[in-house]
DNA sequence: GCAACAGGCACAATCGATTGTGTAAAGTAA
DNA sequence: TTACTTTACACAATCGATTGTGCCTGTTGC
């Protein structure tokens, strides 16, 4: 039986044209080619034109490896994230890639899989790839930060985002989680809630700690009592939240509002409330955190806090580029906190109509269904 | 006011140690170092030990740029995707990165933003970065495939995934969409549906064309009539689907089952059916496609087809690595079609209990809630 | 005892672009 | 005309690792 297919060509492999080829063709030196292409002042306009035209003709593409080797810096940025899944990280990466490519950089992406050892290895790889800068979101298991000193030691720009090393001598971009917790809780209060439970996440993670703090801030501001019995700690899983709310509802004074530090927890709470025959938001208002896709399609849609994923990516790149431009010169580390956006939906705004406005709190942005 | 912070160090920039440094320290040539590190046979075991030890001591990291420049191939794979968002592409990229890094490769990722011009530019960039191979999922606007010839011309391994160039002279990995459509429809028939509508997507996209074909296959197999009036074409948006079902339900002979070519369409259909007071699945069974996150949390959860995103990434990398290993030698192009997985949930299986089994069709895998 | 041989290592060219320095020719000022 | 700039380009070293070739030493074979 004859082979079904023709085989890939391997004889007509076009080797890419190099500056040497152009130089030979024009009878000039490689110096001239290089400088003409980079618009160096010591090359005459006539020669520049000739070189440019020839480069077009042969579709010359500079070898980035050679260039980077010589200059000691590539046009690559390294990203280290715990993983590329869910809603958050992909969106941030999307923002990063978009901003980076706009600035002429490309990104090489690594996953730590929530493992410090892998994170360390990734850093080494990025270093050996001579990236121009590194963006990191810490793995959950990272407690020791010495591996980042090596990066610093090389004078390589380093920016943390979302899961950051705390302190003011690092460059970091985060969401203002405390503000997010505050906005949510304040909104619940404005909706008339007086006994607001908080489904809190693991407190060793700064994000959950901050969301809780924002919750407390809002209570205090409104003169409401802080009641630890209204705060339930869990890993933010849907069923844990349901179970938690179940217990709270069984008490003598059940809550009339729930601020969940995560959308899955909010979902669990919503489902549990409905199982108990409660109306949401009339009997109990529920808000979440993260603006997961599903929050728009539940009945009712869930009020939540958007994390500005794309902006976070953009801001991180901006900061990194500033660092790269500083090029080793003194640079005062910056910590950027992005303002979260409260998205008011019907799980809290019982007076909001479906058209997209909240009657009670017109200052807040109301968001209904989202296009696929 | 004094600056609040100490500035980043710029004097103690540790320049990475090179092979030359090691050679100097040991009083041998760079050749020896290089060959010792790569375990070349012409280096004695004693010397190898000395070199290895010194390399450890100085934490030597080879400069990948230099290596790649010399060898003409880097340890980088290029990915070009339309965008990094939603559920599908991030998951595939996750699979790709995982498989690639396991094989010692890193990935540089580019977004085409559904724009051919950008796609072309991305290819050029990857070429100039001297990647070892390229993985592409086509932009929606790509009709002309000449820019891929340049990649081929260089003899660079190229694999398409999901959105592929059709034909049997390319390397490609896709989901067997036709099988997915077939499985879904067959399942609906097994559930007792006799008048099954199909919410179809744009037919110039092979995925939607194939899903529709699978639907037709199942109908034919079961001896059910093909009724074009039961097939509604749209862009798969939630509201379009709702509107479409609305019309179908108003006819004299409304459908008792709906196979939507996308989950958002299925969701729209589900909501519309419920608005009309119909019970799902008792009055009308509904199934979707893609296994979007939200399909597990609707009431009832939606039966759907999982696209094996991760496996697609892994399979693509495997194919690409095979091509790289072939190293220009004749290679018969391969087209891989992954078997989709039908996830039966309560939107179709009215006889299924919540515990996770389908009474009617025990051969099918029933999937309930999914952990966050 | 001499040749053929293998082991172990160094020399030097190479990948492709960049850049400090050198040097003609052309232009300007006095 | 002399001296001094500018303009426009070439030379050659360099980034760091790789690799074909060559050389020397010690070993084996007969």
UniProtKB/TrEMBL annotation, chains A, B:
Q: Pfam families annotated for this entry?
A: LacI, Peripla_BP_3
Q: Which residues form the HTH lacI-type domain?
A: 17-71
Q: Which top-level group of life is the source organism from?
A: Bacteria
Q: Which InterPro entries match?
A: HTH_LacI (IPR000843), LacI/GalR-like_sensor (IPR046335), Lambda_DNA-bd_dom_sf (IPR010982), Peripla_BP_I (IPR028082)
* Chain segments annotated as transmembrane: none
Provide any one GO MF term from the record.
transcription cis-regulatory region binding
Checking CDD domains in the record gives: HTH_LacI, PBP1_LacI_sugar_binding-like
- Kindly state which keywords UniProt assigns to this record, in alphabetical order: DNA-binding, Transcription, Transcription regulation
Q: What PROSITE patterns has UniProt attached to this entry?
A: HTH_LACI_2 (PS50932)
Checking PANTHER family in the record gives: HTH-TYPE TRANSCRIPTIONAL REGULATOR GALS, LACI-RELATED TRANSCRIPTIONAL REPRESSOR
Q: What is this protein called?
A: LacI family transcriptional regulator
Q: What are the top taxonomic ranks of the organism?
A: Bacteria, Pseudomonadati, Bacteroidota, Cytophagia, Cytophagales
């Amino acid at each position: 039986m004859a082979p079904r297919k023709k085989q890939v060509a391997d004889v007509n492999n076009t080797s890419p044209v190099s500056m040497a080829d152009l130089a030979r063709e024009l009878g000039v030196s490689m110096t001239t080619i290089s400088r003409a292409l980079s618009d160096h002042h010591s090359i005459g306009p006539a020669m520049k034109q000739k070189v440019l035209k020839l480069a077009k003709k042969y579709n010359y593409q500079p070898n980035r490896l050679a260039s980077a080797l010589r200059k000691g810096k590539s046009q690559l940025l390294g990203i280290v994230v715990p993983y590329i899944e869910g809603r958050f990280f992909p969106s941030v990466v999307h923002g990063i890639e978009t901003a980076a490519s706009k600035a002429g950089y490309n990104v090489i992406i690594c996953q730590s899989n929530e493992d410090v050892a892998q994170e360390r290895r990734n850093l080494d790889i990025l270093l050996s790839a001579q990236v121009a800068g590194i963006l990191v979101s810490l793995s959950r298991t990272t407690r020791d930060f010495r591996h980042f000193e090596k990066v610093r030691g090389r004078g390589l720009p380093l920016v943390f985002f979302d899961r950051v090393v705390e302190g003011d001598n690092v460059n970091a971009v985060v969401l203002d989680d405390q503000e997010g917790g505050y906005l949510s809780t304040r909104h619940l209060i404005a909706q008339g809630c007086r006994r607001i439970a908080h489904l809190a996440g693991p407190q060793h993670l700064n994000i959950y700690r901050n969301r809780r703090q924002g919750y407390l801030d809002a209570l205090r501001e409104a003169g409401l009592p802080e009641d630890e019995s209204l705060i339930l700690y869990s890993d933010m899983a849907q069923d844990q939240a349901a179970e938690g709310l179940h217990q709270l509802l069984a008490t003598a004074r059940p809550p009339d509002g729930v601020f969940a530090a995560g959308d899955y927890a909010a979902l669990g709470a919503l489902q549990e409330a409905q199982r108990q025959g409660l109306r949401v938001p009339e009997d109990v208002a529920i808000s979440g955190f993260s603006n997961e896709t599903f929050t728009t399609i539940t009945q009712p849609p869930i009020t939540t806090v958007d994390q500005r994923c794309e902006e976070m990516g953009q801001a991180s790149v901006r900061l990194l580029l500033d660092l790269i431009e500083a090029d080793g010169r003194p640079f005062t580390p910056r910590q950027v906190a992005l303002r979260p956006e409260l998205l008011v939906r019907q799980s809290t705004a019982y007076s909001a109509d479906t058209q997209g406005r909240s009657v009670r709190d017109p200052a807040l942005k109301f968001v209904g269904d989202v296009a696929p």
